[in-house]
Write a structure and sequence with these properties.
With 193 residues, this protein is mainly α. Helices cover 68% and strands 0% of the residues. The chain contains eight helices and no strands.
Length: 193
């Protein structure tokens, strides 16, 4: 019985290793020597590790998976940028068409006061852009949120990812003040003189 207990306690001997002769190109051999010198280990351990990584890549998924994750993130970011660019181009096109078809040309006497008013409105516009960029709340998000609340069927044409983001967007106003339904903040509106 003692002999059986002793057999059980003995550690298993490592599996026998097989000897191989490998011929390496000079440049690779020099690099192999440098790495072995830096790691201060046996050259056999380096070769064994390299072969293990090459023959069983599923045991070492870190580099490939991280690269794929980053590429997926970049792909999603580019798709979002593309969608936002299409939305912005469409908004600008619609605004320009509306402006050109609705705004009548001004007479000679009205042009100077109109320029002064335009300058003032432009300064207010630039200030509002600055406030929007300083906050993390965007007008496009507010518009899409308003559509999701009042006309959710319109979001079906935009896409499910936008609809989901809009529904999950936090409610509340921007840092520039609580916007009204028309998109203007009370701070932007000036009383007529």
């Amino acid at each position: 019985m003692n002999t059986e207990a002793q057999r059980v306690r003995r550690p298993k001997p490592p599996p026998p290793k097989k000897r191989y002769s490998v011929l390496l190109p000079q440049e690779l051999a020099e690099r192999f020597e440098r790495v072995a010198g830096l790691r201060q280990g046996s050259k056999s351990a380096i070769v064994e590790e390299a072969l293990d990584r090459r023959l069983y890549p599923e045991k070492y998924p870190m580099v490939g998976d991280a690269l794929l994750r980053r590429l997926d993130e970049q792909s999603r970011a580019i798709a979002t940028l593309k969608r936002d660019t299409v939305i912005i181009a469409e908004m600008i096109s619609l605004f320009v068409r509306y402006y050109l078809t609705i705004t009548p040309p001004l007479g000679q006497r009205e042009q100077q006061p109109a320029r002064a008013l335009g300058k003032e409105r432009f300064q207010v516009f630039v200030a509002q852009i600055g406030r929007r960029l300083a906050s993390d709340r965007r007008l496009v998000s507010e518009v899409l949120e308003s559509i999701a609340t009042h006309s959710p069927d319109l979001l079906a044409t935009i896409g499910n990812d936008v609809a989901q983001k809009v529904r999950q967007a936090p409610a509340g106003g921007s840092a520039a003040g609580n916007p009204r339904a028309n998109g203007h903040s009370p701070a932007m509106e000036k009383p007529d003189a």
